[in-house]
Amino acid sequence: MTGSFVLTLSCPEQPGIVHAVTTVLNDNGCDITEHQQFDDPMNGNLFLRTAFNAPSTGVAGALRAGFAAAADIFDMTWQLDDAAHCTRILLMVSRFDHCLTDLLYRWRTGSLGGEVAVVVSNHEDLAHLADTAGVPFVHIPVTAGSKPAAEQRLLQVIDEQRIDLVVLARYMQVLSDPLCRTLRGRAINIHHSFLPSFAGAKPYHQAYERGVKYVGATAHYVTAELDEGPIIEQELTRVDHRRAPEDLIAVGRDAERLALARAVTWHCQHRILLNGNRTIVFN
Q: Choosing a second label site near 75 at 20 to 30 A (CA), which of 151, 196, 230, 247?
């Protein structure tokens, strides 16, 4: 039975890296189906993503041994993923339903790249959407006093459902610093503007008052620094003076849906590599 894998790696740039990778693949009878790399001149690092087919899933051990040996030589940070594994996703929402509806639709039509395993919310308003999609819904109420217990319950759900990726699809609660660190690199948030701008309440009304000409949204990884995590994708729409705040809200929600869906899909396809507080996206 043949197997499909994705190798991602980063390391200091030097001669011989690609040769070392392709030698491991060739020695194990593998066929490259997609290869992308980026040499970052600012920090002297190389970033690489290689998708390939293997003669059988049984060569995974030999591949890992070969890449581990190459990693020792070239100081690589690397990961080998089975392309057949469907990323299990936990969606977190509050009361806005546009991102949740969009992600559920993309999952049900097979275009999301992962599997929506469970929906978690601090309110019960959107339980019917999860139920209609046939997805378990978990209500975890959050108050100032119950937040630590609520986050422990969330971690329990993540463990029980074997979650690979947490998506904050307009979840209107700030995650604690310890939880952000626990979920580093596997939690994505959507922000209602190009970061950093129009922070706080009523961002679209602020945008209207400032006469903005573009409305956008930013999908980024969650970090302990609020809304300052590595940016994955941004969506932009031009507007003009005829747009009322309600129009900007509608345009902004479209931007949020698009940016978040792309970020989730690219993560599921192992197309994103972290580069400090930046990302390399092989889309």
A: 230
Q: Looking at the annotation, which residues are catalytic?
A: 227
Residue 195 above 60 pLDDT? no
Does the pTM surpass 0.90? The reply is yes
How confident is residue 140, by pLDDT bands cut at 50, 70 and 90?
Answer: very high
Residue spans in the chain of domains classed CATH 3.30.70.260: 3-82
Per-residue pLDDT of 220-260, as tens digits, reads: 999 988 778 899 999 999 988 888 989 988 999 999 999 99
CATH of 3-82, one of 3.40.640.10, 3.30.70.260, 3.30.465.10, 3.30.565.10: 3.30.70.260
Helix H, strand E, coil C: the string for the chain is CCEEEEEEEEEECCCCHHHHHHHHHHHCCCEEEEEEEEEECCCCEEEEEEEEEECCHHHHHHHHHHHHHHHHHHCCEEEEEECCCCEEEEEEECCCCHHHHHHHHHHHCCCCCEEEEEEEECCCCCHHHHHHHCCCEEECCCCCCCHHHHHHHHHHHHHHCCCCEEEECCCCCCCCHHHHHHCCCCEEEEECCCCCCCCCCCHHHHHHHCCCCEEEEEEEECCCCCCCCCEEEEEEEECCCCCCHHHHHHHHHHHHHHHHHHHHHHHHCCCEEEECCEEEECC
Average pLDDT, the chain: 93
